[in-house]
Amino acid sequence: MGVRAETEVTEICRDLIRIDTSNFGDSSGPGERAAAEYVAAMLAEVGIESKVVESESGRASVLARWGNQNSPRPGLVIHGHLDVVPAQGADWSVDPFAAEIVDDYIVGRGAVDMKDFDAILLAVVRDRQQSGRIPDRPITLVFTADEEAGGVLGAHWLVEHHREWFEGCTEAVGEVGGFSTEVAGKRLYLLEAGEKGIAWLRLTATGTAGHGSMRNTDNAITNLAEALVKIGEYQWPVEPGPSMQQLIAKVQELTGADGTADELFEHFGPAVRMIGAGLRNSTNATMVQAGYKHNVVPGEAIAYVDGRPLPGQHVDFVARVQQIVGEKVFVEPYHEDIPLEYAFEGDLVDAMTTSLLRHDPEAHIAPFLMSGGTDAKAWHKLGITSYGFTPLRLPADLDFTALFHGVDERVPIEALKFGTRVFDEFLDLA
């Protein structure tokens, strides 16, 4: 790899962050069109033709074919999303869409999720295209809209309306994985081999409406509050699947310690909030709606809960939540998506691990189950096996997982450059 990718990746990442693609989840906001046009122009500049498609006005994704399209090998999808969650500028130390460089970090919404990988991918593809180093495998490059709202207007829409772009593809790489964390003073890179399902739930409590000054033993808000306390206090059991079992074994190896999975995962420090979430189902209350006047007891109160079931447990997940909250509150899903888990083996996994080890010989590598969801859920409909691989070598003291959707989201410039070197190596091996 020449110096071009390492040189370009910083500015590409900053350019993308400066394009506000905030996704509010309700079809409002600026959309992804400007970012999609930027990506298409960057590809066109090096002779790669792409197609910009819209599910709705402004909700744009980019598709491009690259690599040896005449190869008999199965196709590989490499994907990133262009949208970001909103940012409240008043909460940030800098403008979240200015992409300022502070202490050798790029600070801005999307720096971690996931315009960092978009930039790595663009920089590496451009470098390889210009130097004639085209991978000997059919590759479909995809930059999607709407990932932050479940991909309905992005990846899932592409699967329904542009399936031809994925014909012959059997594998995919995207977010979230490939980043380093520290366990017992050793660098451990976590590769996503699966992700929990999505079960966003609506909880509805009914009661007797009336005057706020009168006795009321059937208060909808009280009924709802009791249900939410039950959810908050409930401890889902630890039930690790294959990926997390391998990660538990790796932590035992690195620490020389025994104990429960929860005890072992405390070695991750603050990162346990995300990494440890793959050990069990989870339910977190996120929104409450009730009432319309101070002195009126409403007849209905509604809350929303973010549920994330483990692979194999999504079928009866809603019923289990209903049992937890009791009979006074009705539980129903309003958005669901499947959990995924793939075997941590094969040529693609070997390519990821080898490329990391060549650029960080002291690396330790293990799979994990991601707590959130990605566009991999859409590719799964097509029988495509997906892994999360955004290679970043991070400072040991950086609380990286807190930066996802967080205030002052940022990525080290050196981590971006490391990512270009590793991903370039990966494309030689994949």
Structure overview:
The protein is an alpha+beta fold and 430 residues long. It folds into two domains: 3-185 and 340-429, Aminopeptidase; 195-337, Alpha-Beta Plaits, CATH 3.30.70.360. It is 31% helix and 25% strand. The protein is built from twelve helices and 19 strands. It has helices at residues 3-18, 33-44, 115-130, 155-161, 220-233, 242-255, 261-265, 272-275, 317-325, 347-359, 376-380, 413-429, and strands at 50-54, 60-66, 75-81, 100-102, 105-107, 139-144, 169-174, 179-183, 186-195, 198-206, 210-211, 282-290, 296-297, 300-308, 329-337, 340-341, 364-370, 385-388, 410-412. A six-stranded mixed β-sheet has the order 1-2-6-3-7-18. Strands 8, 9, 16 and 17 form a four-stranded mixed β-sheet that branches. The protein has a four-stranded antiparallel β-sheet with strand order 12-14-10-15. α1 packs antiparallel against α3 and α10 (347-359) crosses α12 (413-429). The protein starts with a helix and ends with a helix. The model has no long low-confidence stretch (mean pLDDT 95).
- Counting structural domains, the number is 2
Oligomer: single chain
CATH class of the largest domain: Alpha Beta
State the helix count. 12
